[in-house]
Amino acid sequence: MTTDSAIHVQGLEKSYKDLHVLRGVDFDVARGSIFALLGSNGAGKTTIVNILSTLLKADAGTASVNGSDVAMQAANVRESISLTGQFAAVDGILSGRENLVLVARLRHLESPGTIADDLLDRFSLTDASARKVSTYSGGMRRRLDIAMSLIGNPPVIFLDEPTAGLDPQARLEVWQTVRKLAENGTTVLLTTQYLDEAEQLADRIAILHEGRIIVNGTLAELKQLLPPAKVEYVEKQPTLENVFLAIVGADGRNGAAGSDRASARTSEEQR
Amino acid sequence: MSSHFFGDTAVLTGRSLRHITRSLDTIITTAIMPVAFMLLFVYVLGGAIDTGSDSYVNYLLPGILLITIASGIAYTAYRLFLDMQSGIFERFQSMPIARSSVLWAHVLTSLVANLISLVVVVLVALIMGFRSGAGVLAWLAVAGILILFTLALTWLAVIAGLSAKTVDGASAFSYPLILLPFISSAFVPTDTMPGPVRAFAEHQPVTSIVNAIRDLFAQQPVGTDIWIALAWCVGTLVVAYSFAMVVYRRRIS
Fold first, then answer.
1. Long-range contacts from B224-228, C-beta under 8 angstroms, 24+ separation
2. How many domains does the structure of chain A reveal?
3. Is the complex ipTM higher than 0.90?
4. Which of A56, B81, B97, B119 is 20 to 30 A from B51, comparing alpha carbons?
């Protein structure tokens, strides 16, 4: 199990003063899969992500990422991960392109300019590439944030509440990106408090509650925990999201942004 | 330490230098207060101050330069604090880079920004009649002292930037540093001050630094002042750097 898994966590504990946030967390994430960590605010999801990305030391327990221990071989771990934190960690004073070039340089890659241009294209940010990021919308910032995380193709990516505060379209875009990552073999650990997000994306879902993983399984397995489905006849009402997307158009952003997406689609077709 | 230390520091310094070139107002506001003090003291109060030297602007400039640095490093703390807040600090720390280069980039940027502000203030002083016959070596010595002083205060600013809870807190620590030159030989000779104030003024770092720079500009023998000045600068630098490292380790572990 452990040799096969991209992330292995056992008996993880962490306290902040009197607050015992993690009380023995265990889970494994298989290579190339999407693993969703569900939990309410303050459940300790970010604490787990920070420990796995070597930003925080655990009080007890072990964790390894891509075969390296997060405490003993932190430098190896940092080689193989990317963190997309809860708040889009972008430099507002630099342009979008400069942000990408910065990360490519810090990852010691060759031709950072080409890498940046390629990602700008993939994430429909080419038109805004020279603009200061502080002028970007929330969705654009998040797209840039994720694009920055993909530089260097790290095998493991942590996404801490990637769609918090995004509008429905931006959320769908992020979902698409995450799916594409997993298709290409990247392991994704995702935290979220949106249940539908976990349902849409995750191969496995774990629920973190009071410092422990209380459930861990596929969506089908989780559904079996409840009594079998009863057949009821309910009039199918459109959800507000259906209405919103139908009126606005699922990908019909206005004006320039719309053509952004069109160009993104053609570039995808070329690939 | 990673083998990428110098490369990573250069890349990150380039980033924060862009922050400065894109908000030149930080350089201007850093220089404005010292220049205002200089105008006020030379053209309003200076006539009534007997310093025993012919030109009050010559007497005043060393202290004004220290005030410039003290107000400049507030921006260093501010920029570091914003990096901590925005999450970009964490992004850098989770990447395969030499981690300490994140701090060093801010320190080098602080040095560059303060040197630009100092040049602006010296140029204004020249327009106001500041003259010095000091040679190249004396100017280099002055530059050396100012760089050491900037580094010492910059590491203080790093402590503030790393540990502040609010933006105001990140820059408020610089106010006492800006006021320190007023209770020193920077504006008036210490002879006229009452006992305890005079004792404080003569034994705090600003007086020895100001006296050393003043003597260098006036081509006078600098005496023991320069050694006391250097001891203060290096001592503050070492203590501030050690504390900054303690705070930094606590923030990243």
1. B226/B141, B226/B145
2. 1
3. no
4. B119
The whole-angstrom separation of Cα A124 and Cα A259 is 9
Pairing assessment for the beta strands A19-30 and A34-38 based on DSSP bridges? unpaired
Residues of B numbered 151-210 whose beta carbons fall under 8 angstroms of chain A's beta carbons: which are they?
A: none
Separation in Å, CA of B126 to nearest CA in chain A: 34
Contact B81, B161 (CB under 8 A): yes
Q: DSSP 3-state assignment of A9?
A: strand
Look up residue B196 and give its two tokens. Answer: 């305890």
Q: Does B10 touch chain A (CB under 8 A)?
A: no
**Residues belonging to chain B:** 253
Task: Supply the pTM of this predicted model.
Answer: 0.83
Give me the domain span that covers residue A136.
5-270
**Residue B144 structural domain:** 5-252
Least reliable range by pLDDT among A61-70, B47-56, B78-87, B212-221: B47-56
b/e per residue, A241-250, with b = 16+ CB within 10 A?
eeeebeeeee
Residue in B with minimal Cα distance to A132: B22
**Torsion over CA: B1, B6, B8, B12 (sign):** positive
Encoded tokens for B136? 């190249």
| DSSP H or E segment with residue A214 | strand A212-217
Q: Does B3 touch chain A (CB under 8 A)?
A: no
Indicate the pLDDT class of residue B200, thresholds 50, 70 and 90: confident
Record: contact B87-A108, CB cut-off 8 A: no
Determine the distance in angstroms separating the CA of B21 from the nearest CA of chain A, rounded to an integer. 10
Interface test with B, best of A56, A70, A91, A95 (most B CBs within 10 A): A91
Q: What is the pLDDT along chain A (271 residues), one digit of tens a residue?
A: 445 789 999 998 998 888 888 898 899 999 989 999 998 888 888 899 999 999 888 899 999 999 899 888 888 999 999 998 877 889 999 999 999 999 999 999 999 999 999 999 988 899 999 999 999 988 888 889 999 999 988 999 999 988 887 888 888 888 888 898 888 889 999 998 888 888 889 999 999 888 888 888 888 888 777 777 677 777 778 888 888 888 887 665 544 444 444 444 444 444 4
The tally of domains found in chain B comes to 1
Question: CATH number of the domain that A148 lies in?
Answer: 3.40.50.300
Structure tokens at B246: 């303690």
The H-or-E segment that residue A27 falls in is strand A19-30
Return d(Cα B105, Cα A101) in angstroms, integer: 17
* Local confidence band at B109 (pLDDT 50, 70, 90 cut-offs): very high
Contacts of A108 in chain B (CB under 8 A): 4, 7, 96
Distance from CA of A92 to the nearest CA of B (A): 9
Answer whether B87 touches A (CB < 8 Å): yes
Which region, left, alpha or beta, applies to residue A25 given φ > 0 means left and ψ of -120 to 50 means alpha?
beta
CB contact under 8 A, A83 and B11: no
Rounded CA-CA distance A53/A221 in Å is: 29
